[in-house]
Amino acid sequence: MSSIGSRSLAFTLACAVLFTVAAPLAFAEEKTIAPTGSDISVIMGATGSGVARASVYLDGTLAGTTDSKGNFTFTTAPAAGTHTVTVSAKGIKNATASTDFATKPVVIKAEAGKGKSLSIHVTDAKSKMGLADAKIVNGKYVVGSTDASGDLKMADFPMGIYLVKIQKDGYRTTTTLLIVLSNRTSSYALSPTA
Asked: What is the CATH number of domain 116-190?
């Protein structure tokens, strides 16, 4: 293969990787912020990101779809009483909630249909011991907290690139890119503040 052909192929592959990485990052940073009057907010339970274009069913009848931030407002208020709300979208498992809409918005947490397994291990930088209760935060959403061994394990984590913070009282917060394009284990060490 000629030198020009090799460079052209390398450039094409680099563009494909950049697009694959940049597109989920732009989506992952958009958080669900329910506007005044929203009846339902659909979020990914793992990340807190809004689920756009999810179909919303009220008592088995399609009522509409969520907006770009994962929010939905009924055009006509549901009748008084308890209702079953089901949401579905490509890439997520159907999620159902029973509600009387007394508190709005009703937040429905969805799970990825074909996500990746994610393991995060957090240690003390000096002692190298696992840190319990370290929080992994995406925007304002707490993805989860580590167990007594310093581990957080999640199945079906949505693929994408996330800018997350790892926080624990008494330790410096670490901000990092969490790249989830395959099953992954990531380790982080936090330094004490004093």
From this structure: 2.60.40.1120
